[in-house]
Design goal:
Blueprint: E1 25-35, H1 41-52, H2 62-88, H3 97-117, E2 121-130, H4 134-143, E3 146-153, H5 160-175, E4 182-185, H6 193-208, E5 216-222, H7 226-230, H8 235-250, E6 257-262, H9 275-284, E7 289-293, H10 302-318, E8 323-327, H11 334-347
Parallel strand pairs: 1-2, 1-3, 3-4, 5-6, 5-7, 7-8
Helix pairs in contact: 1-2, 3-11, 4-5, 6-8, 6-11, 9-10
């Protein structure tokens, strides 16, 4: 994690009144979506207002969207979302599972990077929405002496509403700095062999614990309006490729695995098939034993722990399904940290070799 303990010194040959300068380091800043500070009404409202006001997420004109959001949606939605968060909340640490898992990932990544690069690097994390903010972490890294920062959105697949808006927040934070560091962002890693292998191993380990192999594996990705695909967003294609590569790595037939999309919001058509509807259709077709995995999420969160494991599971069972197995996200598993470490190492080339 971030370590700003090293003493600042005066540059050599500088006058006595020159500002002190920290020893130079490379910052590695992991970024995830975000989380409310609490599941009660006002923290939920602040979080949802920030999230749903992002035009990368909801691209309707502000004059049309904001009155609807502030006067109608945010009077009710914080209660429903708060109840969902409460059902999965880490009460011991008083934080959401996403916060707990992202911190654990960061600590393990810091250990991995320390083993490779020693004191030349520091690793920390931020959230696109809520706390800790991207701006606060960029500011802290610069203050600690980071003259280069690698920004790592924890999204395997690129989408305007995920990777792009995280990068937006990063570059906006840099705009406020007097002395900007050199900056890089990573490419999406949805088809990297290490990532596919980590996914495959998680499936193999989950299946090995079951009495009977599921009839099908449902790869449920977070959805987006179909219009975004038509406008050129590559997310849909990248999700399809991940499923295909996972199928090939597992040595399965096409009928053993399928791609769906969840978390539909608003009146327009989103990417199909919708997970909540498709699992019910599978049950009606006689596939009574299914497993679900969420490859687009690097950490378990409200969309996996509550939506998949509760809402989508209920849809399957109500349609006649018998056995529903949710395979957790890669979280802080060693295979995931190793895969991300390789992505980071590749992107540090030329800075640290």
């Amino acid at each position: 994690m971030l370590d700003a303990s090293q003493n600042a010194t005066h540059p050599s040959n500088a006058p006595a009144d020159h500002p002190t300068v920290k020893p130079e380091k490379v910052g590695i800043l992991l970024a995830n979506l975000g989380t409310p500070d609490h599941y009660s009404y006002w923290p939920m409202r602040r979080y949802l207002s920030e999230f749903l006001s992002d035009q990368r997420v909801i691209d309707y004109p502000a004059w049309k969207w904001q009155p609807l959001l502030q006067l109608i949606i945010l009077t009710k939605r914080p209660f429903a979302s708060g109840a969902a968060y409460k059902s999965i909340w880490n009460h011991e640490k008083n934080e959401s599972p996403l916060m707990t898992i992202t911190r654990d990932q960061t600590e393990k990544m810091a250990e991995a990077m320390q083993a490779l690069y020693g004191d030349q690097v520091m690793v920390d994390f931020c959230m696109r929405y809520g706390n800790p903010s991207t701006h606060s972490k960029v500011e802290a890294m610069i203050a600690a002496g980071c003259r280069k920062i690698l920004f790592v959105p924890l999204y395997p697949h690129y989408a305007g509403a995920t990777s792009a808006t995280a990068n937006d927040a990063f570059f906006q934070a840099l705009m406020k700095q007097t002395w900007q560091p050199a900056a890089r962002t990573i490419e999406p890693y949805f088809d990297r062999p290490e990532y596919i292998d980590a996914l495959a191993r998680s499936v193999e380990e989950a299946y090995a614990k079951l009495d009977k192999k599921p009839d099908i594996l449902v790869c449920s990705y977070h959805g987006m309006p179909k219009r975004y695909l038509m406008q050129g967003d590559p997310y849909h294609c990248q999700c399809q490729k991940t499923t295909r590569l996972l199928k090939e790595r597992l040595g399965w037939a096409d009928t053993d695995i399928t791609t769906t999309f969840q978390s539909v919001f608003g009146p327009e058509e989103w990417l199909r098939p919708y997970t909540v509807e498709h699992v019910a259709e599978l049950a009606r077709q006689g596939k009574k034993n299914i497993a679900v995995i969420a490859p687009a999420f690097s950490a378990d969160c409200i969309e996996t722990l509550e939506e998949i494991n509760e809402e989508i599971c209920e849809s399957f069972e109500h349609a006649g399904g018998d056995v529903f197995t949710y395979i957790p996200c890669l979280n802080d598993q060693a295979t995931h940290i190793d895969a991300l470490s390789q992505v980071i190492r590749d992107n540090l080339k030329g800075w640290l070799d």
